[in-house]
Amino acid sequence: MKQLQFRMHRYVFQPTLVGIVVTLICIPLFIKLGLWQYNKAQQKQAIHEAYDQAKVDKALKFPLELTDSKAINIDDWKYKKVIVQGVYETKYQFLLDNQVEGDRVGYHVITPLKIDNTNEYLLVNRGWILGKDTHTELPIFNTPTGKQTLTGQVWVPSKKIFTLESSDNQSIASAQSGNQPWQQVWQNMSMEKYKRSVPFVVSELAIKLDQDSHAGGFVRNWQIPAERITSNLGYAYQWFGFAFTALLIFIYTSTTKIRPENSSDKL
User: Fold this and answer.
1) Is residue 220 within 8 Å of 210, Cβ to Cβ?
2) Over 50: is that where the pLDDT of 165 sits?
3) If exposure means fewest CB atoms within 10 Å of the residue's CB, which of 79, 85, 174, 221 is most exposed?
């Protein structure tokens, strides 16, 4: 097989087969990784914009009958400001552990709300409370009774959860039937586990109680998680730089300068 060769003045471009193969693999791979990081940055930027916009928008009526994530597009409701009326159900509320406010560790209070004039419930994150000095001692807090009017932002708990907690189906069934005490402290917010653990229908959407709401809230300095948009953009430009560098290395290693004594052309 004849080797590829191009001549220009006193330079010869003569790439090797290995160089061609490596370059054809590396450059598309680096570009693909760069586009992946760039798209992640764009998605996170869109989330920030939706979050900021929702805070100033007029509250929407909370959507009912959204009990199956396969039947709805829950992304359409993320961060929307909503209003809903109902009554708190304290029997199946729980504390979400290891929540930090400033430099202090405590819990988020998660309480189900029976939506007015329906048989559907939704989970309400009422905010942060300080934990006790001894972790085995749970904090005492109040839950208002009677009909409540809540405003808040839609919260879709992540399904990517790493946990050491047991997911034993028999234990869940026992708790649901009332034969086993309700688990008051949860290490992770698992909507699927909660739906299997309670004897009523629960919406796929939860809400974080608005700071201005008077429906039994606690500390509610809600912040959208740090999305590291600049880091993703930095990684994207880094991968694009690798692709450009790979091209330059390929050209440099494949180009040879002809010595003057060998540079005369034969006509």
Assistant:
1) yes
2) yes
3) 221
